[in-house]
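Progress note, project year one: complex with adenosine monophosphate.
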Amino acid sequence: MSFADLGLHPELQRAVAEAGYTTPTPIQAQAIPVVLSGADVMGGAQTGTGKTAGFTLPLLQRLARHASTSTSPARHPVRALILAPTRELAMQVFESVRTYSKYIPLRSTCIYGGVDMKPQMQELRTGVEIVVATPGRLLDHVQQKTISLNQVEILVLDEADRMLDMGFIPDIRRILELLPAARQSLLFSATFSDEIKKLADQMLKNPQLIEVARRNMVSETITHRVHPVSAGMKRNLLVHILRHQPDAQSLVFVDTKLACGRLAHFLERHGVAADAIHGDKGQAQRTETLEAFKSGKLRVLVATDVAARGLDIDDLPYVINFELPHTAEDYVHRIGRTGRAGRQGNAVSLVCAEEKHRLAEIEKLIKREIPQEVVPGFDPEPEFFEAGSRGKHGRRAPAAKAAEPAHEPGGRNARPPAAKPEPRRGGRPSVAPDGFDYSKPYEPAQPAATESSAPPTAETEFRAGAPRRQARPIAVLLGGLGRK
Ligand code: AMP
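Model obtained:
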């Protein structure tokens, strides 16, 4: 099947061909004709399936009759509204809209929070047919009367389950009230909880259900592995693992923004080019971090679930769960970043005794037992193997892969200390010896006085505009591993 077979206009076919797509993905093959017919859609599809083009291409085709080269704002009312839960996802969807609308004179823009509203107001004032937005900022514009939604013909709600997790549903309901009742609505979600179904009932009329993969199904090309380890030794084990896969990029998940910053900082201090991405960072910094990761300048991106949602990173070989997520479905979301499009992927989880119940929930959801492997020198707490656990099946890694712990400050050949749980929140001194304040979300370190007065070096050039940290060999910055 080709895009022409789906009835897409030649202008869209051309844009798609230039994007390098030859065959529609399963969700595109199903969604494009349905959306073109004008029907509402309830789509079950995760990121990585090609769902963005699945709704954007027919949306553009339906709006093509309004395409106009007129400069009058009145000729460019908002006709399509695409809501996304995060700024990153909104930007990615917007990029797709721009790519596919290359040969159709329809205007589009992207509005999200965390940045100045004025440039967005300016753009809205000139008139745009397609608005990609995060809900909060959209409502800010509604309040400021800088956007009018009374001519919207098509509404897309992307990643509705994440909207729910992030508490956006009341905002969505407010937005729904501002839209004309006669419109086409599309709702996409990776999972369908009762609350999502309730929202769908309110938002959609006789929707066609489109599902490309079974709910919560995980790709068969992903190898899952659990390393039972004590909570206090997780960071050292992570460095150990990263040293044994020196070229591979990894997305590492943690539970909180604070943990995110701490871990990125720890990895940096152990010679791993790492950075953190979470909601407290400014938009420019998040975009820069993501670009650094995509370009390979960073080896490790430490992220929270919210920040990582919707990130489109091609060919990511490793997803590492530094902590298992609280809900099993988030495990499926997280590991969906690897093993995409038939490629091989690895989902590695560091699991302490406290997280055993989360592991059980995940295994129940994905309907498989995940092989366990204790890395020598990184044993879990004794409770991990206590009754009720299937930890006794855990295999030890071959002795040849002896631990090379990176705990501080003993150096790479020092033996790991006896499993000593890391002090939990509140137990840790708030300022580390090197000045890093653990009580605050991660911020890049200020350049030292000597650094700023020194002439630019390869390092400072590389870091221009990027977070500056202690000087390190350039090889490390380009993805190599530091030696102590
Ligand atoms: P999405 O699920 O929309 O986030 O898309 C995931 C990735 O698949 C993006 O990088 C798209 O550029 C890519 N993609 C979308 N449709 C196709 C297609 N028909 N053929 C090849 N790649 C595609």
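The chain has two domains: 4-211, 222-385.
The two ends are 55 Å apart (CA to CA).
No further modelling is planned for this target in the current period.
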